[in-house]
Design brief:
Largest sheet: none
Distance between the termini: 15 Å
Helix content: over 70%
Mean pLDDT: 91
Structural class: mainly alpha
Radius of gyration: 20 Å
Length: 343
């Protein structure tokens, strides 16, 4: 497994990032409007597998780099994401500062900003968690902790009712097992994708069955229960892998692969067009809540790609999605092509 672009992996990431944007868009619209729309059903259906699959995919290529020396590893897997987190957290704070200052005053806003260095802020918690997972996996690898022990540890954390209110702790407990499973079972996952391309009928039958079970458990309110949530996360991740392989096989929906290859770009920048579009459409008031949610999702997903295209054409604002030389650990820059945000 090389570290280059893989069509079904990018497609899977594209599906996941759209579901992530959809969740924030739909819930934001519904909270502002005080009512739910028809898009709420789609968000609820995707909830059991949306983030598990994203983390599982993020761990797929870890085996290619986990044996690197610590300095290079930290540069690529910690400093890289830390740069984009701090940059975009600061941008979001600048945009929302008037609201924060009105609610909590100048000192309260400053304290909130400083707290966001240890308590992941808003929509950016995903790229805050990734370096934590990378470091934990590296420590386990270097100390020769059996993968069975680590996987069992992650599963126990996911099943345990851990709700401390501290996002770093709660999300680690809830998501680490999927990231580690992506790392450990990468060969099997790639074989599953290849299998799906050769057995389209069986894959479609599995997807129908999975959809009925997943939807039924969500409908009855059981999807979040211990063990069931873990099983649905794993089954849903498998379903997205099969779906992505079948989509690539069909030659359709190529935009998903493009979105997935630049998923971090979308993840970092979707908040602003999402908020602006939501405010405008709700003020106009001539569309139902579900349609407003759909339009907000589309605009929030596409706008970052337009911004990224403009930056690449003009080379203005390139630091928003490309880590500058000064943001590398000394001595690591130049050992490899300078990475993009969506490496």
């Amino acid at each position: 497994m090389g570290a280059g672009r893989v069509d079904w992996v990018d497609t899977a990431k594209g599906i996941c990032i759209i579901f992530v944007v959809m969740m924030h868009s739909v819930l934001g619209v519904e909270a502002a409007a005080g009512e739910t729309g028809w898009m709420h059903v789609v968000v609820a259906f995707a909830a059991p597998f949306r983030m598990p699959d994203f983390f599982l995919i993020s761990g797929l290529f870890l085996s290619n780099v986990i044996a690197r020396d610590w300095k290079l590893y930290l540069d690529r897997k910690v400093v890289h994401f830390a740069y984009f987190y701090v940059l975009w957290m600061t941008i979001q704070f600048a945009v929302k500062a008037p609201v924060f200052m009105g609610d909590m005053g100048a000192m309260g806003t400053l304290e909130f900003y400083l707290l966001s260095f240890v308590q992941p802020f808003g929509t950016l918690w995903f790229i805050y968690m990734l370096p934590v997972f990378f470091v934990v996996c590296k420590l386990a690898h270097d100390n020769r902790i059996p993968w069975q022990v680590m996987l069992a540890f992650g599963a126990v954390l996911q099943v345990a009712p851990i709700h401390t209110g501290w996002l770093l702790v709660d999300e680690f407990a809830s998501r680490f097992v999927y990231f580690y499973a992506g790392y450990i079972f990468a060969p099997q996952i790639f074989r599953l994708a290849a299998w799906a391309r050769e057995r389209i009928g069986v894959s479609l039958a599995y997807l129908v069955g999975w959809g009925l079970v997943n939807g039924g458990l969500v409908y009855f309110g059981w999807a979040h229960l211990p063990v069931i949530a873990l099983a649905l996360g794993a089954a849903g991740a498998g379903a997205i892998i099969l779906t992505s392989a079948l989509i690539v096989n069909s030659g359709q929906f190529g935009f998903l692969r493009h979105f997935g290859a630049n998923s971090i770009v979308i993840y970092l920048a979707f908040f602003f067009p999402m908020g602006v579009t939501r405010v405008i459409l709700l003020k106009l008031g001539f569309l139902d809540i579900g349609t407003v949610s759909l339009i907000v999702t589309i605009v929030a997903s596409v706008s970052p790609m337009i911004l990224f295209w403009m930056i690449r054409k003009t080379n203005l604002g390139w630091f928003l999605f490309k880590r500058p030389e000064w943001a590398h650990l000394t001595g690591t820059f130049g050992r490899k092509r300078q990475p993009q945000a969506a490496e």
